[in-house]
Design goal:
Domain Helicase C-terminal: 269-424
Distance between the termini: 52 Å
Catalytic activity: ATP + H2O = ADP + phosphate + H(+); Couples ATP hydrolysis with the unwinding of duplex DNA by translocating in the 3'-5' direction
Radius of gyration: 28 Å
Strand order of the largest sheet: 3-4-2-5-6-1-7
Bound molecules: adenosine-5'-triphosphate, magnesium ion
Subcellular location: Nucleus
Domain Helicase ATP-binding: 45-242
Low-confidence stretches: 9-15, 86-102, 183-202, 308-318, 331-355, 494-577, 666-722, 735-756
InterPro entries: DEAD/DEAH_box_helicase_dom, DNA_helicase_ATP-dep_RecQ, Helicase_ATP-bd, Helicase_C-like, P-loop_NTPase, RecQ_Zn-bd
Length: 756
């Protein structure tokens, strides 16, 4: 319902007086229906209305927009809002044009619905629409109050000329630079990495001050560490700005980390988690497009209405989500192996896109984000209505390695001078380190977040609103298990630096984003050495000789060689191992598994003390059960099942243990049957029911999968890089020999579906 604007105060552009709080609250109530200002809003508004520059740090969802929207309504004239959220240039950074446009429309529409004359200028608009805006601006008394533009538009001489005219007529009130952190003052290294095309507009922001010296500038951001604050103030040439900082704490968000390596099936875990939130809305961030697609399919299959925002983003997806038709948006944090810019922008794009849906109850990161800053921004999408909400991060050791690999390499992709390259890479890794600590250390998660922004807070601030404060023992236990599982994998050489997802081939038969053809075409120039040391491999990627043209096959082969060397030279025993052997469950592994179970039983002996059981035999029985079930699928599944069993032992009742041992013993005594594989319905009888009981009870978390292990529910095998390459070669050959590309495409998709 549109409202007519509240009559303006009699404050002309020339007058620099403080408008009283009452008058401003009246505007707030009239247009937005809120009873009072939040946090530092009033101070920021009064500062800019009195003509002073202001640098305002407010947490995500803190209400930054209000700081320029109210001034736009309190004074005659126009507020110019420079926002990276609406930049069509962003499609150059793999961000989708349509989505950007949809968001922009959404924001302006929201203003219009409130009776506020807002417009945006973008290349998505028709010439007619743009002309109407320009006509309005040049009319005697423009009705426009807020004009949203991109930094790129500011850089054009045509627009700057128009702006100066508006200014000269005394109609420009304020320049607000929203999400200023997104496109300025990263640091000098990152700035160097911006594509040439973006540099002028980026720099032109500072020229706003030179060209329009009398207009106050309001810089707004949700995340800026002290160094960046200085950069922003310098770059924008702010004069004696009022610096307003609110705490970054989001008390209504409960922070939790779950460990993929300790879960039977993270997908199911997430499904259950989301289901436990009923019809509330959620955002799930994934690292790769393929993972995003997989997850979207998985969630949909499980009855969760879900839309994937992937390569073919559609404004309708977002519209549906904003209008509550879709419960979950799985937003890919599309990442390009070869582009640092992708690292800089993509990860944070979806979180910064300014979606103002207040009732997001859950934000889940299905992969670890690359920095605390990104994580904070993204998780901050939850609970913008200040109601209790959750941030859930699934941490996986493989995800961590993958990200470390990417970050180590990212700088080398831009042909930077080596000093900058090293520095940039170090910075990214240091930023990432904070995320690892957030996941792998047992202290308060909230404290870690806040400390990363330079805020010293007492642990009591959390008030048990993170898993580490609420369930310290459980979290410590998980971390211990994670450490032993990781150490174990490390010793046995099962971790894979080049591991790709099960959907390494996407449905179009192209590579996953990790191996995106477009990226290849964009001309990266490194090679891989034969070193068996991952660190060496990473280094060699950075420093290898340049070739004029990127050749994917060569690169594939060298990576394949590197992987083979990695496994092949680990030790002489490994050398002889075939791929199948590597995934097999060795006797040593089994022995250590038994020991692990025995320890777990001993640790929990107070609960089992009345049972007439021998711990050693029981541990062997349980280990046999795991082995029988997972010997065919291999080591990783076996290990994960062992970890689950250890957890189960920490909560199982004596009856449950007797029951399980009894069943297992019966089954163990049977001769090995052909149906002992996973498709056997009878195998369900000895599938342990494992729950994160405590977690579930107290936090409403999910119940771990207890369904029978069948062929359908088994997680797909993870291909090694070599397997991936061979498979790709096979499909490529198939493709090239085919006279009918369309039917071949179908074959390929089917092949993927059946094989993976
Ligand atoms: N004083 C207020 N009282 C109540 N709600 C408010 C107030 N100010 C803003 N809001 C609401 O808070 C929500 C978040 O505001 P806004 O989008 O401006 O946040 P933001 O700081 O820009 O967040 P982000 O960093 O995520 O972009 C909006 O729905 C807005 O209407
Ligand atoms: Mg905002």
């Amino acid at each position: 319902m549109s409202k007519s604007p509240l009559p303006l105060q009699s404050v002309s552009g020339a007058e620099k007086q403080v408008i009283k709080k009452e008058a401003l609250v009246k505007i707030l109530r009239w247009h937005f229906g809120y009873s009072d200002f939040r946090g530092k809003q009033l101070e920021a508004i009064q500062a800019v209305l009195s003509g002073r520059d202001c640098f305002c740090l407010m947490p995500t969802g803190g209400g930054k927009s209000m700081c320029y929207q109210i001034p736009a309504l309190a004074k005659q004239g126009i507020v110019l809002v420079v926002s990276p959220l609406i930049g069509e240039k962003f499609d150059g950074f793999y961000c989708n044009f349509l989505l950007v446009s949809a968001l922009m429309e959404n924001q302006v529409m929201a203003l219009k619905e409130k009776g506020i004359a807002g417009e945006y200028l973008s290349s998505t608009q028709t010439v007619k629409a743009k002309n109407e805006i320009y006509e309005n601006l040049s009319s005697g008394k423009p009705s426009l109050r807020l004009l949203y533009v991109t930094p790129e538009l500011i850089a054009t001489s045509g627009f700057m000329a128009k702006l100066i005219k508006i200014h000269d007529r005394g109609l420009l009130n304020l320049i607000a630079i929203d999400e200023v952190r997104s496109y300025m003052g990263f640091n000098s290294i990152c700035e160097c990495l911006l594509p040439e095309a973006s540099k002028p507009s980026y720099r032109k922001l500072s020229s706003l001050r030179n060209r329009l010296p009398s207009i106050p500038v309001l810089a707004l951001t949700a995340t800026a560490v002290p160094k960046v604050q200085e950069d922003v103030i310098d770059s924008l040439c702010l004069r004696n700005p009022l610096v307003l900082k609110s705490s970054f704490n989001r008390p209504n968000i409960y922070y939790e980390v779950r460990y993929k390596d300790l879960l039977d099936d993270p997908y199911s875990d997430l499904c259950n988690y989301l289901k436990s939130y009923g019809n509330n809305c959620a955002i799930v961030y994934c690292l790769e497009r393929t993972a995003c697609d997989d997850l979207a399919v998985h969630l949909s299959k499980n009855g969760i209405s879900c839309a994937g925002l992937n390569s073919k983003l559609r404004s309708s997806v977002l519209d549906n989500w904003i209008s509550s038709k879709t419960q979950v948006v799985v937003a890919t944090v599309a990442f390009g192996y070869l582009l640092l810019l992708a690292q800089l922008f993509k990860w944070s794009f979806y979180c910064r896109m300014g979606i103002d849906r207040k009732d997001v109850r859950v934000v889940c990161h299905f992969n670890i984000p690359k920095s605390m800053e990104g994580f904070y921004q993204e998780s901050g999408r939850a609970g913008r209505d200040q109601l209790p909400s959750r941030s859930l991060l699934y941490y996986g050791v493989d995800d961590r390695k993958k990200m470390e690999f990417i970050l180590s390499n990212a700088a080398s992709k831009k042909s930077l001078p080596s000093s900058l390259e090293e520095c940039s890479s170090k910075k990214s890794l240091a930023d990432f380190r904070q995320m690892i600590e957030y996941c792998e250390e047992s202290g308060c998660r909230r404290k870690k977040i806040l400390e990363s922004f330079g805020e010293e807070v007492p642990a009591s601030l959390c008030a048990k609103s993170c898993d580490a404060c609420k369930h310290p023992n459980i979290v410590s236990k998980y971390l211990e298990e994670l450490t032993s599982a990781t150490a174990f994998r490390h010793r046995n050489g099962s971790s894979r630096i080049y591991m790709s997802s099960a959907s390494a081939l996407n449905d179009e038969g192209q590579f996953s984003e990790f191996w995106n053809r477009d990226d290849e075409a964009s001309g990266s120039e490194e090679d891989i050495s034969d070193s068996d040391d991952p660190v060496e491999i990473v280094k060699s990627v950075s420093h290898s000789s340049k070739s004029s043209e990127w050749r994917i096959n060569e690169r594939m082969e060298s990576l394949q060689r590197a992987e083979e060397n990695y496994y092949g030279t680990k030790n002489s025993q490994d050398k002889k191992m075939s791929k199948a052997d590597k995934n097999s469950i060795s006797e040593t592994l089994r022995e250590s598994g038994k020991q692990r179970l025995l320890n777990a039983m001993k640790q929990n002996q107070h609960r089992f003390s009345n049972l007439q059981i021998d711990f050693v035999t029981s541990a062997e029985t349980l280990e046999n059960e795991c082995h029988k079930k997972y010997e065919k699928s291999g080591k990783s599944f076996y290990l994960s099942q062992m970890a689950s069993t250890v957890r189960w032992l920490s909560t199982a009742t004596p009856d449950e243990l007797t029951d399980r041992l009894g069943k297992t013993a019966n089954i163990s005594s049977e001769a090995v049957r052909p149906e002992a594989n996973f498709s056997s319905p009878s195998s369900s009888s000895f599938n342990p029911v494992i729950t994160q009981v405590d977690e579930q009870k107290v936090t409403g978390g999910s119940v771990k999968s207890s369904s029978p292990v069948s062929q359908d529910t088994l997680p797909p095998p993870i291909l090694s890089f070599s397997e991936f390459v061979n498979r790709r070669k096979a499909t490529d050959n198939q493709f090239s020999t085919s006279k009918r590309p369309s039917s071949d495409g179908v074959t390929r998709v089917m092949e993927k579906k059946t094989k993976f």
